[in-house]
Amino acid sequence: MSATASRPLFLPTRDGALRRHEPKPSRVFNRPDGQLTSRVLFAAAHVVADPLADPWAIDWDQTLAYRYELWSWGLGVAEAMDTAQRGGATVGWEAARELIRRSASAARPGLDRLACGVGTDQLAHDRSWSIAQIGDAYEEQCAFVDDCGVQPIVMASRVLARSARTVEDYVGVYDRILGQVRSPAIIHWLGPMFDPQLDGYWGAKDVEAALDVVVEIIRRHAERVDGIKLSLLDADLEIELRRRLPDGVRMYTGDDFNYPSLIEGDGDRASDALLGIFDAIAPAASAATQALDRADPVGFRDVLEPTVPLARHIFSAPTANYKAGVVFLAYLNGHQDHFKLVDGLESSRSIVHLAELFALADDAGLLADAERAGSRMREALAVAGIR
Predict the structure, then answer these.
(1) Which one of 127, 171, 195, 370 has the fewest CB atoms closer than 10 angstroms to its CB?
(2) Which residues of 116-134 are buried (b: 16+ CB within 10 A; e: fewer)?
């Protein structure tokens, strides 16, 4: 079934013109009857700003409501990650603690998957710290997540990237943390395209050398590592790392450009997923995986491959600004009643970028209510002076 399409819009283009866009009927996706079985999917979830707060603050009710939405599609929630603007002026460790606590209380045990980011952002990232202090910071956050009864995601640390002098510094920190987690952790390798301060992570500028370091760490702690999320936007590197992982350790794709082929797999191994784009395309991600559950790879591709142009647009350079696109799509789809991000990050993308996002989301069938989405797009255009 499809809903009625919205009336035409005139969208700005990169050459300064306006083009007529005829919205398509909305595509209807069905929520799963139970848990997804063929792959484990996490959506790195965004936070909703309180538009009336001064200074910036989180709207806790709408933020939690969106977690319920993601869970209803059979996706796990990866909480307090970079999609939630973690590490910014507003979502530091204090706010992340509250976010983790509330999500842990909301998740239904045994039904709603929840994994939460642990890092070092209680330490100022504009100075160096000792390796022992960095380990202490990780340990404090990991203990809090463990006490909440949820799975930890060991996030890449800006202060470790700044302070470490050798590969052994990285190995020592990860040995310490992985040696004491109460439930198997997910290691998060975030590339410099998402955060330039993480350049040279694992103590090696050469990515192949860095791969050797992380594989050795995982091998030593395989029983305490659920998987690794790789966010380097390099499908070949992910396939190589996936091949080298010990049996039982998952590869969670973090490749927001190439996720359909990586999740489908090569007949030998396949990736699970922990993706920021799944915050925006949860219905399609769920429907595609339901097709895999039915052993229907053609149905999987039919749903998920049309979302790739949208994902590549949302994560286009500067990649770190993708949060604005994720939130704009949530606004278009009625999951929040405004397009505001904490710390004013909505201004990081132009109206031309947002207009292209609207058209690509429409092409992928991801506008849940075409009339509402069109109306909200018109409001955004009017604010930008386009009438």
Answers:
(1) 127
(2) bbbbbbbbebeeebebeeb
